[in-house]
Amino acid sequence: MSHAVFFTPVAGLRLGAVAEAAGASLPAGADPDRILLGAAPLESAGPDDLAYMDNARYGAALAGTRAGACLVGPRFAARCPPGTVALVCRDPYRAYATLLGHLHPDALRPGSQFGARGLASGAHVHPDARLEEGVTVDPGAVIGPGVEIGTGTVIGPNAVLGPGVRVGRHCAVGAGATLSHALVGNRVIVHPGARLGQDGFGFAMGATHLKVPQVGRVIVQDDVEIGANTTIDRGASRDTVIGEGTKIDNLVQIAHNVVIGRHCVIVSGVGISGSTTLEDYVVLGGQVGVVGHLRIGRGAQIAGSSNVNCDVPPGARWGGTPAKPVRAWFRELTTLARLAERSGRDAAGGDGPQE
């Protein structure tokens, strides 16, 4: 089997340009016209590669790297070996991400899985759909009546866009994703298998459970990323809204009428119940559960595997089940650990020998 390389650098980077992009100064004697051909981890980087380091755990790897240049924080710069140009910057990881995007622009968002441009053979586009010039639709995709798609957008194989859905410019909708009752902004990435706009879970409970029609929409603002197999239900009467710049991981459930603010981060396995509001810059760790009709304040952070059952104030850091301020949570954990340790010692001691 041949060795497959899925992401080949489009062009090299001048060392001077790398330093400028990172906000770093070139060390004395470094050649600004030196070309770096790729990027690689510290352990495997060679003389033509760019690497980065911003964690003390990788001090030994930095000392032994063969990278041509390394983006590094000030406190680690002295550990760079003589053959590696140290590019000292405030945020090496962010600078590395920017430069990696220059080297591999095709990795920034999914492209056509068929290597196609325009409408591939086998795509099903309704005659009443409106596609701007420069849209790519892969085989098996279904584009319903009244759909509007902006230029530069790629619709993956077997994706389905239901009637009236609108998708902005330079978006990517992954293979097998489904969008219905949804309005999607520009530069949005919807990864494979995601489901947007299906019924919210609404029933009037009784001896028999009466279905409540879900007549709202899903609104996705610009620069949102939605992970694989994530589900976002449409609103019952109001809209479900995902704010600008928010990043949602794989396998997340967002229920009807949820409003998520701008630039939130929602990690894998999170479940958000109906009519809850997340203000801007909220972070939910993996497998967090949030009950319905709550408000999580701007900039709040919830630790992974926590369960939130009340409003969270802005800027708070909470964790646990039920979630509470982290200091209170840590005190509880410490107290429980001490009680368990004491109980273990008491059990080991017993009642002493019997005569």
Describe this structure in words.
A hairpin with a 4-residue loop joins strand 37 (317-319) and strand 38 (324-325). The chain contains 4 helices and 38 strands. The protein has 355 residues and is an alpha/beta fold. The mean pLDDT is 95.
Low-confidence stretches: none
CATH class of the domain at 13-107: Alpha Beta
Number of strands: 38
Quick one: overall form? flat
**CATH architecture label name of the domain at 13-107:** 3-Layer(aba) Sandwich
- Major β-sheet, in short? 11 strands, mixed
Give the terminus-to-terminus CA distance.
Answer: 76 Å
Strand order of the largest sheet: 9-12-15-18-23-26-29-32-35-37-38
* Count of alpha and pi helical runs: 4
Helical residue percent band: 10-25%
CATH topology of the domain at 13-107: Udp-n-acetylmuramoylalanyl-d-glutamate--2,6- Diaminopimelate Ligase, Chain: A, domain 1
Average pLDDT for all residues: 95
What structural class is derived from the secondary structure elements? Answer: alpha/beta
Give me the Rg, rounded: 26 Å
What percentage of the residues does DSSP assign to strands (E)?
Answer: 15-25%
> Oligomeric status of the shown chains?
single chain
CATH superfamily annotation of the domain at 13-107: MurE/MurF, N-terminal domain
